[in-house]
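step: validate -> pass
step: tokenize input -> pass
step: predict -> running
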Amino acid sequence: MKVYINGEFVDEKHASVSAFDTSFLYGEGLFETMRAYGGHIFALEDHLKRLTDSARVLEIKNAPDKERLADACNKTLDANKLVDARVRLTLTRGPVGSNNPTVVITATQYDGYDKAFYEKGMSAIVLASYRISNSPIASIKSTSYLPSVLARRRAKAAGCNEAILLNEQGNITEGSYTNVFAIREDKIYTPPVVDGLLPGIMRNLVIKTAGKAGYLVLQRSISMRELQGMEELFLTNTLMQVMPLTRLNGKPVGDGKPGPITKNMMELVSKEIMAATSGAGL
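step: predict -> pass
step: emit ->
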């Protein structure tokens, strides 16, 4: 693999950053995980806007602009001769005291999740005390990722695919690596950003797509009790698109199978993505 580091491509065996990089020392960095289809990175502009907006919040100076980052991401795809790929862009403040940000981009072959997950759905546990409402960093995709890593590890130990995280008020926020949507009486619910979650790129697309399809989408707080009474649940992120969630805390969601609205959203979102990456645009 060829890795992009600060304007140059190096072999993965020689890819390294400074031992004094602030992301290594303090977790002071940002990242975006993107997906390329047929050589086109989906929602690249949206990912880069979130990254550069977050860089301003963290006051990272001298960061490359969106145009330079977009060019670097596309060149990383080309350097690795990839068309369907997982692309990760990491931006840090750089070595302590340098004011020279570090930019690392990797691209690896990616063909999506196992089809069986989409047919049968994923499972999740619910964990408390992993998110804080109105957190100043909740909406930033930071390399300080330890709470999510620990939550995902606990989910795996419980034999589940994901962990749904509660804030200090006992409301649903997000998964350890996904956003959460719930369905009841033909309405789609998802927690608001102020409850302590990352506004995912795929989350935004789902909200937009559902609205276009005539669904009422409500962004409001969802208690654990409400979640357990929902008819359907699904998860989203850039790599998985829309994923049915059919078991929660060891119990079936609805009838334990992907529901009709979830299936419809899977199809609609997939069509939007294919249109965008084929050059037709959203």
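step: describe -> The longest helix spans residues 260-277.
step: cleanup -> pass
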